User: Which sequence fits this backbone?
């Protein structure tokens, strides 16, 4: 019997080709945008899909699983983060949930480094200044930034992405690396000369603080007013993990009041909205949740999400079962 797959929004072709190559009937949501939860429920209810390929912008809870029905075996998330899915509800219903770890690690680490360099060298500000016709000639004090080489990077969350960022920092820029994670990693410390510290020490001693933890109840607002108060006035905060890990209004205040020197963000507390005042700050570099968005990586994420579906529908344990 032919199996039916629902994809909540168009994804790169390699994923769709892999599913169609298996003879599955693939339906992609016709809406050019994020489906609301109500629209998702309507799209799934009574349709007897065998699998759903969903995105980090889809809020997947028990009502969505119920709408998908008992014949649906898997929700394959097209992201490594899975804070958009209620895993307890999935477990109770025996629903398999998967993510796409690993294939995006290098790309997100590159984007993180692009943000570190952009903030320190004031790239976005300088670009806007130049395009606006303000450049009237070389000047000794024009748009002075901060060096990155030799400074201290504090990595919060030393998982796949955090350790790759630390690699670039230590090997490429001769940076000292501090890290905080519930799990210390002695091998990593040896290879990179890194030091395991608690979060307050990391905040006090780092010149660049880069966040790489998953969004969990324990990591929501991990960085807020108290934490900004501990940072150096010359520090930069970089967040490419999930927006609610940083109290964004507190960040705006910290940037305005000079508690820290700058910030670079790819993710926001209430995406796609920005906290009032954030977009007006010249010392914030902002990208629209694109840290994994290269042609290569988005294609690999689509293939991996499809592979998870294929494995589940063929009766095997998918490689990225959560
Ligand atoms: P990972 O699971 O390999 O690493 C997460 C690390 O955080 C782990 O080492 C874990 O022990 C640590 N951690 C958990 N709770 C912590 C806490 N309270 N304090 C300090 N460390 C803690 O995940 P990954 O593949 O490195 O991805 C990290 C996150 O990056 C994802 O969860 C996702 O939300 C985000 N992400 C964002 C983008 C983007 O487009 N901006 C792309 C990919 C991933």
Assistant:
């Amino acid at each position: 019997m032919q199996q039916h797959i629902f994809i909540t929004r168009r994804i790169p072709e390699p994923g769709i080709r892999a599913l169609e190559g298996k003879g599955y009937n693939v339906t992609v949501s016709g809406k050019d945008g994020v489906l609301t939860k109500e629209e998702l429920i309507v799209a799934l209810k009574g349709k007897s899909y065998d699998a759903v390929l969903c995105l980090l912008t889809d809020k997947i809870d028990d009502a969505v699983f119920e709408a998908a029905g008992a014949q649906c075996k898997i929700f394959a998330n097209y992201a490594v983060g899975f804070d958009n899915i209620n895993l307890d509800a999935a477990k109770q219903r025996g629903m398999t949930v998967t993510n796409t770890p690993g294939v995006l690690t290098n790309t997100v680490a590159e984007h993180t480094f692009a943000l570190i360099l952009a903030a320190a060298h004031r790239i976005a500000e300088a670009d806007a200044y130049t395009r606006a016709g303000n450049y009237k000639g070389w000047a000794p004090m024009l748009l002075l930034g901060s060096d990155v080489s030799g400074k201290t990077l504090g990595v919060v969350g030393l998982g796949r992405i955090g350790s790759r960022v630390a690699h670039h920092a230590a090997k490429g820029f001769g940076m000292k690396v501090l890290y905080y994670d519930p799990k210390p990693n002695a091998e990593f410390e040896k290879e990179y000369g890194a030091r395991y510290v608690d979060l307050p020490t990391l905040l006090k001693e780092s010149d660049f603080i880069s966040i790489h933890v998953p969004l969990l109840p324990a990591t929501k607002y991990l960085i807020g007013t108290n934490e900004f108060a501990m940072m150096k006035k010359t520090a930069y905060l970089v967040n490419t993990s999930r927006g609610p890990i940083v109290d964004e209004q507190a960040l705006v205040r910290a940037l305005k009041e000079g508690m820290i020197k700058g910030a670079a963000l790819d993710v926001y507390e209430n995406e796609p909205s920005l906290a009032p005042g954030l977009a007006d700050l010249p010392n914030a570099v902002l990208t629209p949740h694109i840290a994994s968005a290269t042609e290569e990586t988005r294609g690999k994420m689509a293939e991996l999400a499809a592979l998870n579906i294929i494995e589940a529908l063929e009766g095997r344990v998918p490689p990225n079962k959560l």
The chain has two domains: 4-101+295-313, 105-286. The mean pLDDT is 97.
